[in-house]
Amino acid sequence: LAKDVDLEAIAARTEGFTGADLESVCKKATLLAIAEYRRGTSGGSFNVRRDDFEAVIDDSAGLEPAPPAATESSRSERGQP
Asked: Cβ neighbours of residue 42 under 8 Å, at least 6 residues apart?
């Protein structure tokens, strides 16, 4: 994970995403980083960068965040506040 990755900024941009959505974002960002590394455009080191996450999140703009009621309901089912 590159030093320019701000996990709090990613969390803010993905508020309401499901766990599966977040997993997908991370996997796709990693695949972008792998492709850049293989093309030799990563500067010789393998890192998942902020740009990789931003590209995936921007591309995921069509994802609908989970409605708050659904999120609250699933939390209460697990005994979480």
From this structure: 33, 36
- Classify 67 as helix, strand or coil: coil
CA-based nearest residue to 63, from 35, 22, 33, 32: 22
Q: Which two tokens stand for residue 36?
A: 């850049």
* pTM across the whole model: 0.72
| CA distance from start to end of the chain | 31
Report how far residue 69's alpha carbon sits from residue 75's, in angstroms, rounded to the nearest whole number: 10
Looking up tokens 């093309």 gives 39
Which value, to the nearest 10 degrees, does the dihedral of the CA atoms of residues 44, 50, 53, 58 take? -120
- 31, pLDDT greater than 60: yes
Supply the DSSP symbol for 42: S
